Amino acid sequence: MLYWVYLVIAIATEIVSTLSMKHASMTGEHFGYLVMYVMITCSYICLAIAIKRIALGVAYALWEGIGTFFITIFSIMLFNEPMNWVKAFGLLMLLIGLSLVKSGTSIKAKTKSDQKLQG
After folding, report:
1. CB-based contacts of 65, cutoff 8 Å, min separation 6
2. How many other C-beta atoms are found inside a 10 Å radius of the C-beta of residue 94?
3. Under DSSP, is residue 100 helix (H, G, I), strand (E, B) or coil?
4. What is the pLDDT of residues 78-89, one digit of tens each?
5. Whole-model pTM?
6. How many Å apart are CA 110 and CA 117, to the nearest integer?
7. Is 117 a member of any domain?
8. Domain that holds residue 60
9. Residues 53-63: b if buried by 16+ CB within 10 A, e if exposed
10. Which of 4, 15, 27, 98 satisfies CB 3.0 to 4.6 Å to 65 for a cystine?
11. Which one, of 102, 91, 111, 73, lies nearest residue 4 by Cα?
């Protein structure tokens, strides 16, 4: 469960990082770039921790896919980017694909080495 929390943190910090980059590029404020660097660093660290127990393909797909979904939604809301039916359909397909990737994984039985990792 803890590794899924790290994945959620990785996704959230990736979203903040990308939105900060966009904001900084629009306003010219250097603080936004600092936030971007700190958040993307945190994102990769949390992703690295998450993949200790979550399959890399699943973790990376969820990290990028959910990040892309929310970045697109927030870009529409915060930066007035256009939304059309093609983009909406793409986001729907993204969510369907992510659910298929996630549902295609199975939970493996815990071994003694896995239990040691959990401490």
Report:
1. 94, 95, 97, 98, 101
2. 17
3. helix
4. 999 999 999 999
5. 0.82
6. 11
7. no
8. 2-33+40-106
9. bbeeebbbbbb
10. 98
11. 102
